[in-house]
Amino acid sequence: MKISAWxxxxxxxxxxxxxxxxxxxxGLLSDCSSVIPRGLGRSYGDSxxxxxxxxxxxxxxxxxxxxxxxxxxxxxxxxxxxxxxxFVPKGWFLPVTPGTKFVTIGGAxxxxxxxxxxxxxxxxxxxVDSIVIATGSQGVVQCSRxxxxxxxxxxxxxxxxxxxxxAATFKLRxxxxxxINETVVKAKNLAHALELLEKYESTTYSVAWIDCLSTGxxxxxxxxxxxxxxxxxxxxxxxxxxxxxxxxxxxFLLNQFSIQAFNFLYYxxxxxxxxxxxxxxxxxxxxxxxxxxxxxxxxxGGFTQYQFVIPKAAGLDGMTEILDRIAQSKRxxxxxxxxxxxxxxxxxxxxxxxxxxxxxxxxxxxxLFPLLDELDKIVLKHGGRLYLTKDVRMSEDxxxxxxxxxxxxxxxxxxxxxxxxxxxxxxxxLGI
Amino acid sequence: MKNxxxxxxxxxxxxxxxxxxxxxxxxxxLVARNTEKLETIATDLxxxxxxxxxxxxxxxxxxxxxxSILELANSKWGDIDLVLIAHGTLPDQQACEASVxxxxxxxxxxxxxxxxxxxxxxxxxxxxxxxxxAVITSVAGDRGRQSNYVxxxxxxxxxxxxxxxxxxxxKSNVQVLDIKPGFVDTPMTAEFDKGPLWxxxxxxxxxxxxxxxxxxxxxxxxxxxxGIMMIIRNIPEFIFKKLKL
Lengths: 432, 245
Hints:
The structure holds 2 protein chains of 2 kinds.
Chain A: E1 2-4, E2 11-13, E3 15-17, H1 22-29, E4 35-38, E5 52-55, E6 62-66, E7 71-75, H2 80-87, E8 92-93, H3 105-110, H4 118-121, E9 128-134, E10 140-144, H5 149-155, E11 164-171, E12 173-174, E13 179-187, H6 190-199, E14 205-210, E15 222-229, E16 243-244, H7 256-269, E17 274-280, H8 281-285, E18 291-292, E19 303-311, H9 315-329, E20 336-341, E21 355-363, H10 368-381, E22 385-386, H11 396-402, H12 406-416, H13 425-430
Chain B: E1 3-7, H1 12-23, E2 27-32, H2 35-48, E3 52-57, H3 66-77, E4 82-85, H4 93-98, H5 100-128, E5 132-136, H6 149-169, E6 175-181, H7 201-213, E7 218-221, H8 225-234, H9 237-240
Parallel strand pairs in B: 1-2, 1-4, 2-3, 4-5, 5-6, 6-7
């Protein structure tokens, strides 16, 4: 069957393998030569694409829960949406969540996803206690920070290349309400936005939407949204959304003008410089989950998300240089999201490092990749790197110069996958 | 619904339905062949919120066991409020055409075993004058088609039986629900190419829960199959017999 990931580009022919138990995963692996695990297919580029695909769909059961500590163990195919549905009514929330709840636990670990609370809580794997993984040559292994620790650090953020995560144990955070006390502040420009992010450093959740088409002294004007779990309001999970984009829309609908108009309206829709709201966690964390298959908006050619991080020291200068270059290209991004990262962790390939991260969506066409190559150079110059989960085109050089622990990663991968059966289009492109 | 009993509890639709009832805090009694899978599912349902779970191993074609399983389930937390019968196989139509034995085996699994259960349940629920019996049949039972008429006729037998049972039990305040799913993306249909008409087991599960709540009699799932089958049922036979369906 033909598959692609969230960006609808590229697509490949793949043989679908559906393990329904730990044993069957091991059995299926014995017959594989170039396989990659996959959950809900929300990584954007080619990191979950290969000629053989181990789908975690049937591994979707909870295994245990300790109501005293919030420690939960579940199979890899359980999604964040499942966890919210089951645990929000009981007073528990995800320790870290990305901007969509339609990712699996296996995927959250393999991408070591981060959320709006990275500056306070780190990334997802920082809350993971242990992992059960089917490896290429060492069978099913349980790993943690004390047991097969190298495999643990390679698997968290390891893009599924060390094996297929079968189950994991991680800790939920207690909540008293499913609502968020949100504060929305408008920032005139980039310097103002970074200043505000700093000001709200001790607030658990923070993120800024940037209008990346404004220029001059408005460059980087944004809307900052910060929040804390509320103590007021009921404990109830979100409702299922009914909106859907069932088919790929014509690509021309998204162009310089429509994007500029959207960005203008989005910025001016917030009238007050400062406002406070009491909102459900669903629109606060998952605004886009309200529209199923929103990726089809970008048409047949697909799209990519360019997400980079640069160290704090490079902050304003680096960000300005990159935003300038993007504004100059007139290739706006519908959604440009800016956020502060706290300290990175010990995983070999995890993306976050202390500094600022910016994520931009771009429709794919012939002029895009040369622009992104240019941006790569600026990112690299400032000591930054790109998020593998969003990447579809970075060069091997770019990867190897920006991920300093890649060689250790490869060594550990080889130890647990002697025949090298785990690989993706991305891992081949990046030479790992 | 407080106490729920499920036959064929390891099937995808049954499991998805069990999860819905677990979220509501029901007691769930699961019956299927594979105890290892039953245990995994029971544990999962407990975490999801089931007040209590229990399971029993049964090969559905061992009809003489049915009575004792029902007694066991009713003794666990008191009377069962809802029974969901969800077991079934998807026969290889061509293999059935070539073998009388296989055809009859499939009819036994998909129809006779269910009728055995329904006969016992019908008497119990009639006496008790409450409760709901929900059975998963199929849109395939609405009209025989060359591609799967062994399966279709087994499901049709169950649907007709349910219709009669409903007529009888209506006086006793017992709901008899016939659920007719269309194409569902489950391990049973893993080999098929999936188009836009395909539904997920969770969709069917939600439809089942809603239909039980609303005291419905027959529920196509998803609902649009009602329209599709209405058309298919009304094609004149002299045309229908020439179609490749």
